[in-house]
Design brief:
The chain is an alpha+beta fold. The chain has one domain (about 30-170). It contains four helices and six strands; from the N terminus they run H-E-H-E-H-E-E-H-E-E. The protein has helices at about 5-15, 55-60, 85-95, 125-130, and strands at about 50-55, 65-80, 105-110, 110-115, 150-160, 160-170. The longest helix has 14 residues, at about 85-95. The protein is globular. Keywords: Signal.
């Protein structure tokens, strides 16, 4: 049974002007149990609409992680529709995973990357190519209406490491 919040969140886009509508149709609501753990947002965001690109199979095939995913939450704030925006997004994530420290941050263009609190800040840089599949031309973040979001989560699981890089816009 869905919570009152989840029902309200699913109905909200139909109550707002189309410029504020969510890119995820309420009829395509993602059930939490169907979403791989590596792709699930935490806390209240887990009950909201979000899109995810599970790259775990390619990460495993490349031997870089047991799980990796890109999750887009919300609909306002950030845009990834132009080549420059995609390039800046790749750059901010690539530069940020080279940093250590829970409170480190990196800014490139309109994007700022941070680590989620209490998570490991060590990422195998080889995961970047797998994460970047979600930014490619087909069925990706940069195509269609899904090119806008409030923030992105780049998630990584390998052995005892769980890391999430959060990207938001200025």
């Amino acid at each position: 049974m869905k919570s009152t919040f989840a029902v309200f969140a699913a109905a909200l886009p139909s109550m707002l002007p189309s410029t504020f509508a969510s890119p995820v149709s309420p009829s395509v609501s993602i059930e939490k149990r169907a979403v791989p753990n590596v792709c699930q947002p935490d806390g209240a965001q887990a009950n909201s609409n979000y899109l995810y690109w599970d790259e775990s199979a390619t990460c495993q095939a490349a031997g870089v992680a047991t799980g990796c995913c890109v999750t887009a939450l919300g609909t306002l704030g950030c845009s990834v529709k132009t080549e420059d925006e995609v390039s800046d997004l790749k750059s901010v994530v690539g530069k940020h995973i080279k940093k250590t420290g829970q409170f480190a941050s990196t800014t490139v263009g309109n994007y700022t990357a941070t680590y989620d609190l209490l998570e490991d800040d060590k990422v195998n840089p080889d995961v970047l190519q797998e994460w970047y599949h979600a930014l490619g031309p087909d069925d990706s973040l940069s195509s269609g209406n899904s090119g806008t979001f409030a923030y992105l989560l780049f998630s990584y699981i390998a052995k005892d490491t769980w890391t999430r890089v959060r990207v938001s816009c200025l």
